Amino acid sequence: MASRKAEATKAAANAVFVPELVERPVARRIFAKLAKHHHDAHCELDHRNPFELLVATVLSAQSTDVMVNQVTPELFRRWPTPEALARADVAAVEKVLSRLGMYRQKTRNIIGLSRAITEKHGGTVPKSLAELVELPGVGRKTANVVLGVAFGAPEGVVVDTHVQRLSQRLGFTRHGDPKEIEQDLMQLFPRKDWDRLAHVLIFHGRRICTARRPACAACPVQRECPSAFRAELVGRKPARVRKPAKSQTARA
Ligand code: SF4
To answer: Which of 60, 109, 174, 248 lies at 20 to 30 Å from 132 by C-alpha?
Structure first.
């Protein structure tokens, strides 16, 4: 009896669920329903211009938007432009950012990108993906946030941890790598929806389809979603089977 229970526990730990991929019309219906439900979905990083959005997005890596919004008012009060931040004292900026994870690295990046914007782009944030990803600390995800939110001209889809998880659960992709997920989303949805798609998925991921205990019963796409009520098993890696310790092997 005890061994059956142990086997059942082991099977549950190993359980992985791979949802069916949905067809394009279904994917678009899911997005339409989610967009209606989260009609107020928007970028939750406070900013007043493209430069502030760029800096806030760089700061948001491995930090919550709430935490970033707590430090940026002071940061932009003291150094409101790329020119000002380019000349800032490193220790003073570090002090303002010290509540964020990796604040030393982030300080180097935002001062570095401010210098590059000042020296190479005449003090204005560049408007192309190719130029943005050349700036220190700016990857494809950050660049797409700025292009979509500040300029209304995304060159791709922002794939953060929420977009990654939801794209897998909703059957939009079978990939785990953000770049491949982005390509799948760009194939499924028209360019005009790329920016809004990311905000809607992020809102849904924060409020309903959370990483742990997603609220499937309250979800507006419960009928279309191939992972409904099994979502926590999606994207999971099977538990590793432990080798018995040498002493145990010897005893046996
Ligand atoms: S039904 Fe569940 S798994 Fe599917 S999107 Fe809704 S909350 Fe997420």
So the answer is: 174
**Single residue among 150, 165, 190 that ends a domain in this structure:** 150
User: For residue 45, what are the CA distances in angstroms to 63, 146, 175?
Assistant: 11, 11, 28
Distance 11 CA to ligand 1 centre (A): 23
CATH number, domain with residue 228:
1.10.1670.10
Angstrom distance (rounded) from CA 24 to CA 200 = 18
Interior angle at CA 206, CA 201 and CA 209, nearest 5: 70
pTM: 0.85
Burial environment of residue 242 by CB neighbours within 10 A (0 to 12, 13 to 18, 19 or more): exposed
Question: Structural domain of residue 218, as residue ranges?
Answer: 17-42+157-233
User: Is 193 one of the annotated active-site residues of the chain?
Assistant: no
Query: Of 33, 65, 127, 160, which one is the catalytic site residue?
Result: 160
For the stretch 178-188, pLDDT in tens is 999 999 999 99
Confidence of residue 235 (pLDDT cuts 50, 70, 90): confident
Whether 36 is catalytic is no
% residues pLDDT > 70 (the chain): 88
